[in-house]
Amino acid sequence: MAGIVSFGAYVPRYRLKRMTIFQAMGWINPTTIMLAQGEKAVANSDEDSLTLAAAAGIDCLAGMDRSAIDGLFFASTTMPYLERQNAGIIAQALNLGENVRSADFSGALKAGTSALISALEGVGSGNVKQILVLASDSRLGRMGSPQEMIFGDAGAAFLIGDKEVIAEFKGSYSLTCDFVDHYRGSKTTFDRQWEDRWIRDLGFDEFVPKVIAGLLTRYQVKLNDFSKIIFQCSYDSERKNLVKMLKVDPAKVQDPLHGSIGETGTAHAPLMLAKALEEANPGDKLLVVSFGSGCDALYFEVTDRIAQKNRGMGVQGYLANRAELTSYPKYAVFRGMLPVDIGLRGEADLLTRWSLVWRKRKAVLGLVGSRCKRCGSPQFPPQRVCVNPDCGAIDKMEDYTFADKKGRILSYTGDMLAASYDPPELYGNVEFAGGGRYMCNFTDCTLDDLKVGAPVTFSFRRKYYDEKRDIHGYFWKAVPQKEVA
Amino acid sequence: MATGIRDKVAILGMGCSKFGERWESSAEDLIIESFQEALADAGIEKKEIQAAWFGTHIDEVNVGKSGVPLSTTLKFPFIPVTRTENFCATGTEAFRGACYAVAAGVYDICLALGVEKLKDTGYGGLPATAAFGQMQAMIGPNATAPGLFAQLATGYFAKYGVDPALGKKALAHISAKSHANGALNPKAHLRRPVSEEQIIHAPMIAYPLGLFDCCGVSDGAAAAIVTTPEIARSLKKQGPVLVKALAICVSSGEEAMFNNWDGAHLETTVRAGQMAFKEAGIKNPREEISMMEVHDCFSITELTVYEDLQISPRGKAIDDTMDGFFDLKGKIPCQPDGGLKCFGHPIGASGLRMLYEMYSQLLERWPEERRVKNPRFGLTHNLGGIPSTNVCSVAVIGR
């Protein structure tokens, strides 16, 4: 029976207090004071929906064998590429190999649950064994808008399979409605929406009960049979209203994470599901409802294997890995909303040479180097002639993945001269556990976090953005490991 | 059996332009300025030069590629001109080409000339280029030279347990010493003495290097005319100054990719030094070298080079520095002309500018206040690239 084999999440380290937003932008839209509570997770300047999804995928696959994965679905409404498969970039970053079915799911905030249903049914068909489903978003509201207050950035991941599942898929029910509460055109950066009252009173009030009723009828279950109701609704008042309308015990309603992360779009229902699984017990029945251009409702039953799972950070772990972003302008610059001067060095024209990217795809996207079969020395970038001076063997190399290795700092600096959206530019030499070394950027840290000998792990990040050609380039950066609460 | 370069080539004449922000001058003007001085010093005519080596590093804001810019600027009569480029060793590499041609007996008189016009970039520091190729440009950090060399300081301080405050003080002494020397030199770009206090409290460029830990950025050119010792003796009363050693050492990838480099020294400098001392017949560098111009792109580079060239014992360069060992009146004056610190680093010119200083000192041409007493061997050192991956040159000239 198809179901969830593993799950993971990713919440970016930086959190922006909504009052910080209000203090900066409340002057233009004073009513946003109503929303100025709690905080939201915001992607770092080198993160986007693609890296958020990759990070959630890595979390989901912690300690798991990737060789059986033969599918990758990625859902987001903020993918960096319209043409060039975003899922394909992530598949390479995760070193899933070529023999993988992949697809990008987009166009609606329910795309995350739609990707999940497709994966569950795909595995159920027997044609694919395991599909990794990723959902993430990093949506933008205009400066000073309510959406800016509400939206947060995060990713969620599920490994779908039909063996050793921790939650069995019992079925789903879907509605498709061209109900334009929010929309973005293909040339639009910022979210636009219609009136809140209409979205609440006609949208949520009508579609959520309807999709739930459809599912209950189809599978002959009662709402009270479920241990957790996980539904996506960006309005906290409307959530309360729906709880009343549906006559469910408020204790069974999954926390929407709005106060700590924000409304994460395509990722949101999956993210809440991940959090629910972190708290679930064997036998729990979970109902998941997404909202956006209609609704998907999914029905899961948690198995006995739940206790042995969840070896990654998960929602809870990443929530604890927190640093406050105290500057609103810095957030605005990170998200590309404010043009800033990063100096003439930042204007250097970096031409992406696609034929080179293709040849070096394993190294650039997957942080795969080589290991000498004669002397055992790992090396990055991959070499043909062994770098060990006592070896020097030619063409005795095998692929060797560095992305999952830990490392330690050999040297570091904080460079005020280099072009950077978050100066000083932090970089240094790192040595991989087990051998090999490389000079790379440090991220999610400050200069004070860097010490010679300090431990690091590696994170897939956006390395550059070529504005002239709309190219997002990706590579790996070192993240100093900090104690989290 | 190869016997090396020692005593096979003499320097007949040298020239060096004024270094600085030469807003009024293009590379062509700097070429002519250094060439005219070298030609007059050699006491020969242009037509006697049989071949030339032309050192320039950056194409984009300089004169472009090939030997053409040198030949057409000086109107050489269709002689061979070879462009050399080898990072910061470019000028020394041009000198090496000219010396080897004379030593091989192919030509009697050759020119080496290096130039760089850096002040047409529109900003401070070196221009950002894909110096290590396109892949590195895509995946590497947005690094600058200060940030790359600053890591030598964090690595060195960690390895030897140096308190960063003490480390900063030693680095400040190195820069203050060079500023004091440069203040005496009319051809230097920066001519103001700077105190250790000012240096320590200057704005941070790349931790832990502050503004005064970084060398200047300037325009300049320098030239050498070389010949055989026999011809030199027949043409000139003074000298001759002879080439004792010319070493180039290039990283193997070991420092960057294998696990045995400590990040606190420059392996190429260790090896280039060993090669050069062997070629020059120098057994004890600390006792035999009279003076040095080393590649002080940053104060920390100079500090580690003291050790890499076997002048200071490992981990003891700070002690020697604080003892004044490398000051103008110390045991081995280092950067008697002010170094890259005060001359800036027009890349193609720097190696030849250093040789110009050693050559002039060996001929005792400078006024008393900046003269090195009774020098025998002068050493020059260049290091181009980054601490883990670089090109190093060491040259020794003497009497």
What key attributes describe this structure?
heterodimer, A: 485 residues, alpha+beta, Peroxisomal Thiolase, Chain A, domain 1, OB fold (Dihydrolipoamide Acetyltransferase, E2P), 2 domains, nine-stranded mixed β-sheet, five-stranded antiparallel β-sheet, 25% helix, B: 399 residues, alpha/beta, two-stranded antiparallel ribbon, 15 helices, 11 strands, 38% helix, globular
β content of chain A, as a range? 25-35%
Structure classification of chain B: alpha/beta
What's the Cα radius of gyration of chain B?
A: 20 Å
pLDDT < 50 stretches of chain B? none
Oligomer state equals heterodimer
* The CATH homology group name of the largest domain in chain B: Thiolase/Chalcone synthase
**Main β-sheet description of chain B:** 9 strands, mixed
Structural class of chain A: alpha+beta
Q: Using the coordinates above, name the CATH class of the largest domain in chain A.
A: Alpha Beta
Q: pLDDT average of chain B, as an integer?
A: 96
Number of strands of chain A: 22
By DSSP, the count of extended strands of chain B is: 11
Number of helical regions of chain A: 12
CATH topology of the largest domain in chain B: Peroxisomal Thiolase, Chain A, domain 1
Terminal CA distance of chain A reads: 38 Å
- Write the H/E string of chain B, N to C: EHEHEHEHHHHEEEHEHHHEHHHHEE
What shape does the CA trace of chain B take? globular
Total count of helical runs of at least 4 residues of chain B: 15
Whole-number radius of gyration of chain A?
23 Å
Proportion of strand residues of chain B: 15-25%
- Overall structural domain count of chain B: 2
